Amino acid sequence: MKIEIGQDAVTWFEENIYVGSENGIRFFPKLTRGSNTGITVGIEPAVPHQSNVNTTVNDVTYFIEEGDEWLFDYKDVHISLDREFNEPMYKTE
């Protein structure tokens, strides 16, 4: 399992998520409620603690913590930018 992130997505994260001293962006399962109840990908600035799945671009580590891999079916994660909605898009293989 690995993370690949496109340059367009890297640019989006750099412009929209303030990393600060954490130097990392964590992807995790997030429960949503309302008309679209379910589980989605949460994003937060964080420091990796127990991460076997990560990649570093421009000194920022993008990672999934141990125990959260199930969200991506334990497959490789490809992150790109959905230009229609101007937000990250996740594809697994």
UniProtKB/TrEMBL annotation:
The protein's name: Iron-sulfur cluster biosynthesis protein
Superkingdom of source: Bacteria
